[in-house]
Amino acid sequence: MTFRKLAFATAALMVLLYLWLSLIAIPRQSLVVERIALTTSPADVSLRYENFSLTPADSDLQLAGWWMPADSATATLVFIHGGGSNRHSEFFRSLRFYRAMVDSHINVVAIDLRNHGESGAHAPGMQFGRSEAQDALAALRWARARTPDLPLIAMGISMGGATVIHAAHHGADVDALILLDPLLHSHDVFARGGWVETGLPAALFAPAAWAATTFYGLPAGKAQALDRAAELALPMLLIQDPDDPVTRLPYARELAARNPRVRLWLAPTIPGDHPDLAWKARWGTHVAAFEFFPEETTAQIRGFIASAATSRAAAH
């Protein structure tokens, strides 16, 4: 075999390998969730709580959750974690967040989404909020039945943001949404996630992102969270870490521009070399607003929930 033929054959094999990785291996692997065990509970931040389980409408799987009641509660918040996490969600410091909400007289419901934490497994795996919306719907129904006279707010971080958007699109009985660094644009998040995991340029993952939405169920186009949120007639608070490298600012700005019901709050900037970000590696400031600015973030959420409560009272 001549050198030219050898070079051509090698190049062809490399192209085939890249296509196999992009169209089959990477999209399939992206749906697989490596479960993180729960090693703590609300009791570790001195919260009263109850364990509960529920079943979504589309499956007989069991979802695990916590109910954290507040004294003299003025609202109930259903919290939906991000992809690859669980209701503990140490990446977000969620136990401290639950404490802050309960101290603000807000009940909290938190569940493990399907394929996460202590909830049941469900094919085809993680779906960027598409199938997980059924879990949010079930949690919201449970919360509404538990506190029928209180404003009900759904909050999602990262993929949880997409999840509550899809739930609202499907008619969730909810008074308002809180989205923190939400997954709005499937292709961009998929490609940026590839960079986070490997350090390779995000552009290399564009074909895999296309395959994941075309063949493996991840929502895209008019069915993705950005477009569905743009059509919702609900009050929405969108909290955005301005330098989030994964769920990025331009898409948050686009949603706020397209839907006048969206209140966009940009968290203060966190220096990229901040020592407390080192453990997050390339995830950087993703869902970092509460950890770094707990008082400011909590104040934004409290004020928004109070406004939603006033609107609900006026409507009734």
CATH topology (fold) name of the largest domain: Rossmann fold
Give the proportion of residues in helices. Answer: 40-55%
Radius of gyration from the CA trace? 20 Å
Distance between the termini: 81 Å
CATH architecture of the largest domain: 3-Layer(aba) Sandwich
Number of domains: 2
Helix- and strand-based class? alpha/beta
Shape: globular
Largest sheet: 8 strands, mixed
Return the CATH class of the largest domain: Alpha Beta
**Largest sheet strand order:** 1-2-4-3-5-6-7-8
Overall pLDDT score? 95
Number of strands: 8
Based on the structure, what is the oligomeric state of the protein chains? Answer: single chain
Strand content: 5-15%
CATH H-level superfamily title of the largest domain: Alpha/Beta hydrolase fold, catalytic domain
What is the N-to-C order of secondary-structure elements (H for helix, E for strand)? HEEEHEHEHEHHHEHEHH
Q: What's the total helix number? A: 10
Low-confidence stretches: none
Task: Write a structural description.
The N and C termini lie far apart (81 Å). Strands 1-2-4-3-5-6-7-8 form an 8-stranded mixed beta sheet, with helices on both faces. Helix 1 crosses helix 6 and helix 3 packs across helix 4. It is α/β, with parallel strands linked by helices. The protein has 2 domains: 53 residues, no CATH class; 241 residues, Alpha/Beta hydrolase fold, catalytic domain (Rossmann fold, 3-Layer(aba) Sandwich). Helix content is 41%, strand content 14%.
